[in-house]
UniProtKB/TrEMBL annotation:
Residues 69-275 form the Fumarylacetoacetase-like C-terminal domain. It comes from the Bacteria. It comes from Mycolicibacterium porcinum. Residues 1-63 form the Rv2993c-like N-terminal domain. Pfam families: FAA_hydrolase, Rv2993c-like_N. This is Fumarylacetoacetate hydrolase family protein. Belongs to the FAH family.
Length: 275
């Protein structure tokens, strides 16, 4: 099933998306209330609010509630790390992203005035559906997946004064990183780690293309890595890293007016314009 967060009558609400019918069946209550039961048994459905709206009549929001934890794993595709001139680490690494850095699936990317090297990163995003703590199996806590574009400021990233790398400045910029368009539940993707095509285009030109099976550490292992350090709650999300082909490899950074489309097979497409 597809689960979206939409603006209905000026109020953010969750709903089940039926693309064939072109409707959204609204869900009663916040994600944290019904996601654990759904994650445990995908044959059930979330509690419905008894109201259906046309999909075209609502604005799809980023599928993350305010207050949720937003994390990102880095250095997870070997070719990407080689393209940046870095050495592949021996274990995963992750960092926190501010909620304010996120935008919806069709919102504008607001070009930050403090960078001249704005980059793109198509990613598979994991959505947590059940409380996950140290020692838990990561896959059991996954509600589903969506598409992400972890937009990054490279001149700020590699200009860190203390450690040589400033992840906060590079990855935490307001209104830059797209996520959505909805959550596709884990049962729709199949057992085990997903093997899905990722593609990113800029003004129609393919810049990135790979498969999620190229991840050195799969989504379940990355969730376990994070949960061993910080417990996860329903609604938390994890960007799993990006493959090769980013702008930092050839210097073709994003420019104002360009249209960026990030697609993950079976999950949908983000379409964001740089403003």
């Amino acid at each position: 099933m597809k689960i979206a967060r939409a603006l209905v009558d000026h109020t953010p609400m969750w709903g089940l998306v039926d693309t064939d019918r072109g409707v959204v069946d609204l869900i009663a209550g916040p994600l944290r209330a019904w996601a654990p039961a759904l994650t445990a048994d995908f044959s059930s459905t979330p509690p419905l609010a008894g109201r259906t709206v046309d999909l075209e009549s609502v604005s799809l929001l980023l599928p993350v509630d305010p207050g949720s934890k937003v994390l990102a794993a880095g250095a997870t595709y070997a070719k990407h790390i080689a393209g940046l001139g870095l050495k592949m680490p021996e274990k995963p690494a992750a960092f926190l992203k501010p909620y304010e850095s996120l935008i919806g699936p069709y919102d504008d990317i607001i070009y930050p005035p403090i960078t001249e090297q704005l980059d793109y990163e198509v990613e598979l995003v994991v959505v947590v559906g059940a409380p996950t703590r140290r020692g838990d199996a990561g896959a059991a806590g996954i509600l589903g997946y969506c598409v992400g574009n972890d937009v990054s400021a490279r001149d700020l990233q590699f200009g860190g004064a203390v450690t040589g790398m400033d992840i906060f400045s590079a990855k935490g910029l307001d209104d830059t990183s797209g996520i959505g368009p909805w959550i596709v539940t884990r049962d729709e993707i199949g057992a085990g780690d997903p093997d899905l095509a990722l593609t990113l285009t800029v003004d129609g030109e393919v810049r990135q293309h790979d498969r999620t099976s190229s991840l050195v550490w799969g989504p379940a292992e990355l969730i376990e890595y994070v949960a061993a350090r910080s417990r996860l709650s329903p609604g938390d999300v994890l960007f799993t890293g990006t493959p090769a082909g980013v702008a930092h490899e050839d210097g073709r950074y994003l420019q104002k007016g360009q249209v960026v489309e990030a697609t993950v097979e079976g999950l949908g497409t983000l379409r964001n314009t740089v403003r």
